[in-house]
């Protein structure tokens, strides 16, 4: 037959393709039948993308699932055993239908295990890489990923609400400039100076003035006078807040000029470790003293010997109310005479009750046995001071059997000639003490007769004492 050139070229290419395919098939068949390509006991045969050895727990679950499926379908045939490298044949290895069926079976088993056991391990099936095999091969094992089961309650307990709360006081004001602080809080600025005297070994602090203080409405809504402020400044060297100083009160002004100097007797090396704290306070006779703002300056960051002047912007203070002051009391009991001796030594940093001359404080001491007021005594009045020295002694007749039921109520007042005396603070020492320091002082008295026991006590408000001590309710 004669064909056109195009048909002859097509037949030539077709014959070459069939000859090449037959040659390759014959070569692969002869290569497989040779002994060098047969799997040995030390080698592993990899079937597709899955590992050669199947975990025991997966084989058991697979057999159980097959038994359940056979019961549902009515088929009583037994489940086929897992394929091993020794049982595999070339036809089975080349069968794509068997590979698809095994893929579907394994996927179904893993999904069923996940639905039944949330904490069961998962198999990380990675693609198999083919490379030149050595004489010794190890079995390829799947990587097991175990996800720990976390209850819902434990998960939500990990959240810390304080990290998500909005609190202006928690801002890092150290990274802000004075202009940024002033624009953010708008509490005004304070002008002061510091210098250390090496000859006298004391730190000199000068409080000069303050500017643009806020109106009282922004600090305390319970004030009667909302049009003006009556500011004064309290200063201390942290962490010792007890040894503090206080300026006079400037009446009805938002730009007070103080021009007052104070000294702190402290060694130079110790002064460099301290932080100078200024608190600007608004005085109110008929309400409470409100803290407008504060300024803290670390003395290690400045040249104390050379000194300097600073304008610092006020920042909000976490302490809204001013402390009421402290009282130093000494107690001594004489069991043979049946006498309880009380010494009122001194007080310091009392709450100022008079705007012009500080305060005129005195102390009232009242003995309460059980819930009955027995005796009342008081000290003399100290004029124009908030750091009075009393040094007065009092004696109460208390029998030893009644000492366990006794309570001493100490109340500090500011003398007022025009109206009733101004309440400053109170503490109760005895059976109905107002706090742990007072209870500790009373226990030392009971265990050490004939020995004076003295201790500083922080004054408390009337409402706090009435809430925790029944003896405070029995006195006026």
Automatic annotation (TrEMBL):
Family: Belongs to the synaptotagmin family.
Matching Pfam families: C2 (PF00168)
CDD domains noted in UniProt: C2A_Synaptotagmin-15-17, C2B_Synaptotagmin-17
Protein name, as recorded: Synaptotagmin-17
InterPro entries xrefs: C2_dom (IPR000008), C2_domain_sf (IPR035892), Synaptotagmin (IPR001565), Synaptotagmin-15/17_C2A (IPR047897), Syt17_C2B (IPR014705)
Residues of the C2 domain: 186-312, 323-457
Principal location listed in the UniProt entry: membrane
Gene behind the chain: Syt17_1
Keywords: Differentiation, Membrane, Repeat
Annotated compartments: Membrane
Annotated segments matching region Disordered: 53-119
Topology versus the membrane: Peripheral membrane protein
Superkingdom field: Eukaryota
Signal peptide: none
